[in-house]
């Protein structure tokens, strides 16, 4: 078990007073990981005869099956958690997990801070998403064009969030450096300011990733997985689909 040096209360408050974080903990280094288990995957087979022309219905079906799997598989706990990858203007990639909140007729919606690192990287106009649903041995990858959702849509979704998350959206200068204790202070200030309803911050809202590529991956024994990749040159063209080697 990893353990941490616990700071004394005095040291803790001294550390809290400092705006710049000073990393001082000593952590026992765990070793001896076993990362070569050679897990076998055994998803339901995917073949061309069962593919729809348009990948959206297949995405919805797989999401449904992740939540309510058949064949005795365990339900996926948070299938809406997806890795969002972006690229900076100088071509440096970065990834983080965000939550899929809606799939409409055009794409995949998530919500975030418009002044965050990811937001600045989404200015490139492109992003990739990846879902890994271990319990059902499935992966879905998306590459797409990014657009902001309308302020009305963002406000409508914001209104459904729990108060704590609404306050957090105002309080967090997402991706910026903050001092120890600063977030707690900011949360309190925002809570006091909006004693009643919390409006949607102007710096917060949704993005839609409009796919031009969607891959469905079904894990199979001995790494002979099924992969089908839908592509289209742009968002208004019809899709084509092909099987790809695993
Ligand atoms: C399960 C999970 C769900 C998350 N959902 C969101 C989300 O919907 N929106 C968001 O802005 N950040 C979300 N985060 C936090 C992001 O991963 C990330 O830390 C944050 O958005 C800052 O990223 P950035 O600095 O690259 O912009 C989530 C993290 C996890 C682990």
Automatic annotation (TrEMBL):
Signal peptide: none annotated. Its cofactor is FMN. Pfam families: PNP_phzG_C (PF10590), PNPOx_N (PF01243). Keywords: Flavoprotein, FMN, Oxidoreductase. The keyword Flavoprotein applies. GO terms for molecular function: FMN binding; pyridoxamine phosphate oxidase activity. One of its GO terms (biological process) is pyridoxine biosynthetic process. Pathway: Cofactor metabolism; pyridoxal 5'-phosphate salvage; pyridoxal 5'-phosphate from pyridoxine 5'-phosphate: step 1/1; Cofactor metabolism; pyridoxal 5'-phosphate salvage; pyridoxal 5'-phosphate from pyridoxamine 5'-phosphate: step 1/1. Its EC number is 1.4.3.5. Residues 204-246 form the Pyridoxine 5'-phosphate oxidase dimerisation C-terminal domain. The keyword Transmembrane does not apply. InterPro entries: Pyridox_Oxase (IPR000659), Pyridox_Oxase_CS (IPR019740), Pyridox_Oxase_N (IPR011576), Pyridoxamine_oxidase_dimer_C (IPR019576), Split_barrel_FMN-bd (IPR012349). Residues 74-179 form the Pyridoxamine 5'-phosphate oxidase N-terminal domain. This is pyridoxal 5'-phosphate synthase. It comes from Cutaneotrichosporon cavernicola. The gene is PDX3.
